[in-house]
Specification:
The mean pLDDT is 89. This protein has a 6-stranded mixed sheet with strand order 11-10-12-13-14-15, with helices on both faces. A 4-stranded mixed sheet has the order 4-3-6-5. It has a two-stranded antiparallel ribbon with strand order 1-2. It is an alpha/beta fold and 262 residues long. It has 2 domains: 92 residues, Ubiquitin-like (UB roll) (Roll), CATH 3.10.20.10; 131 residues, 3-Layer(aba) Sandwich (Cytidine Deaminase, domain 2), CATH 3.40.140.10.
């Protein structure tokens, strides 16, 4: 299934009206099955669905390691991801019983968010990964120039997990939080450890975005926009370096600034 859809619209420019073929992003309901049981349905963009499923299930702790996956298939013209894997049944049960709808576009459910950060089931990030502020400026600029679906439709969020100039993975989706899962899933499927990377995202640093980074043990999360109060508190609690308003040579480092080198 193609991620984009062409549709003829009426376009107005100044005092002129004319027909125009516009490019729209396609939106689907993606069902994720594990061991023949449906874990979740989420609204998504039909691209990198396998990576999205892997990243999501690992971020929720339902699958603990990429090596626990025996098989993964895309079915029903991309509408179903079917996985066979060793899972944490307790965390799968918790997701069903206690999961909350997150605030990002294309809403899905997470059991990893709490108003009190100390109650989030995660460990503190212990990482010596660092990056120069000048490299953040350069990479954020390049990141924003390599988003084909956004260029065509103007209707998706984007994320990149960056390891070095030759190794990074981009993701696009209507759901902001799903871009992290997709990028991390692509890294894992290609043999990279997310703990050695940094995440760059296009949208706000809300609680679910910060929790995604924490659950994947990614040490640095960067955006061109701001964080929420809860996002900041979670990052501070779990030793995540949180960077916002990274534009040009300026940025706000909200937490754990030792990883950002001048």
């Amino acid at each position: 299934m193609d991620a984009i859809y062409n549709f003829e619209i009426t376009k107005i420019k100044g005092n002129k009206k004319f027909r125009y073929e516009d490019t729209l992003i396609r939106e689907i309901r993606l069902d994720i099955y594990v061991n023949n049981n449906k874990i979740i349905s989420m609204m998504a963009t039909p691209i990198d669905q396998k990576a999205l499923a892997v990243g999501y299930l690992i971020s929720e702790g339902i699958i603990e390691n990429i090596i626990d996956i025996e098989n993964i298939e895309l079915k029903e013209n991309g509408l179903i991801v079917d996985i066979k894997a060793k899972i944490n049944k307790e965390k799968a049960k918790r997701l069903n019983e206690e999961g909350i709808i997150v605030s990002g576009c294309g809403k899905s459910i997470s059991a990893n968010i709490d108003i009190d950060p100390t109650k989030i089931d995660a460990t503190k990030i212990e990482s010596n990964v660092k990056i120069k502020a000048s490299d953040i400026s350069k990479q954020m600029d390049e990141f924003y120039k390599s988003c084909p679906l956004y260029e065509k439709t103007g209707c998706v969020h984007t994320a990149r997990i960056y390891f070095d100039e030759n190794n990074y993975f981009d993701a696009e989706d209507i759901a902001q939080h799903s871009t992290i899962d997709k990028a991390v899933g692509k890294a894992l499927l290609n043999g990279f450890d997310p703990q050695n990377g940094i995440i760059m995202v296009s949208g706000r640093l809300s609680s679910e975005m910060v929790v995604k980074a924490v659950m994947h043990k990614i040490p640095i999360l960067i955006s061109r926009t701001a964080t929420t109060c809860l996002g900041l508190k979670i990052a501070d609690t779990f030793n995540l370096t949180l960077v916002g308003f990274a534009r040009g040579d300026k940025m706000n480092v909200y937490t754990h600034d030792f990883r950002i080198v001048i």
